[in-house]
């Protein structure tokens, strides 16, 4: 298994792709508000197999299926605890790679599109409280690091950064660069700096954005290893719950992201094992 602390300063490491996308491509129904978490609950073998497919394609880090699993959203707390821990176990069983436990934004738990705006109507303390228990369970579940991902606004970045204190586990911090929550000038740069200064954070960057957003977003990032795993170019319509637009080959741009300082590189929504294999070839070449 890869040692990220010693490897990231030396070379780029390949992340996996869109787990929900692959589960859907394998014939699973991800249309409910639980998204891929429903498969985690009802068919864990499918989750393990999807992780394994990305590993076979060249992923050196897999991100767990816990993105849309959290407390206080209609699932009994004991079941949430079980699912969070199961997500790490399944990723670990899929292959000898690093496991990053996914921590999605509050909007992902709500499944109402607010993960693209960060407009929750919650205070800093409320956000800290909503994230705290999930963070602690995942930090204790046996993952190698946390993947705090698709965070859409400065306030939530601040809340999560404060909650990392004392967890004793490394983390990557990835922001949703196309979110309207970062529309004001300098907002994304400030959020990246806040994330980089949080306890245990080893890399910061962007995900769940258009491929062409990556380089401008990373231009103002702090001087630590960076993260880049965008969508494949299509745009999510939260109203119709469909993807629109054309795809873009992520591997074509991956060497430019690495040249800009990205050391964790992969794909997000709509990316499949073939995309990760192409990224791995481009990055390692």
TrEMBL record:
Cofactor: Zn(2+)
Organism: Microbacterium testaceum (strain StLB037)
NCBIfam families linked: PRK09485.1
Residues annotated as domain Hcy-binding: 1-283
Alphabetic keyword roster: Metal-binding, Methyltransferase, Transferase, Zinc
GO BP term (any one): S-methylmethionine cycle
UniProt name for this protein: Homocysteine/selenocysteine methylase
Lineage top rank: taxon: Bacteria
Residues where Zn(2+) binds: 208, 268-269
UniProt cross-references to Gene3D superfamilies, sorted A to Z: Homocysteine-binding-like domain
InterPro entries per the UniProt record, alphabetical: BHMT-like, HCY_dom, HCY_dom_sf, Hcy_S-methyltransferase
Keyword Nucleotide-binding: no
Pfam families attached to this UniProt entry: S-methyl_trans
Single Gene Ontology MF annotation: S-adenosylmethionine-homocysteine S-methyltransferase activity
